[in-house]
Amino acid sequence: MKLEGERLKVKELLERGMSQSDIAKKLGIHRYTVKALCEREKSCTETFKKRIEVRSI
Fold first, then answer.
1. Can you give the residue range of the structural domain that contains 33?
2. Which single residue of 3, 29, 38, 54 could bond 33 by disulfide (Cβ 3.0 to 4.6 Å)?
3. What is the DSSP letter of 1?
4. Over the stretch 2-53, which tens digit does the pLDDT of each residue have?
5. Single pTM value for the model
6. Number of domains observed in the structure of the chain
7. Three-state SS letters, the chain
């Protein structure tokens, strides 16, 4: 399934610290698609929260 492959790529790139917008550009998909794929994965949300905490410091 194409969507499953994209989900795995999105998860990997988020874990590397890329923003959702940058991931969308790199994969050639809409940023809302990246957001939707992220919301399906709890770990993506946790990674995003960690990035926000790091930026706040």
1. 2-56
2. 29
3. -
4. 777 888 898 899 889 899 999 999 999 999 998 888 887 765 656 656 665 6
5. 0.67
6. 1
7. CHHHHHHHHHHHHHHCCCCHHHHHHHHCCCHHHHHHHHHHCHHHHHHHHHHHHHHHC
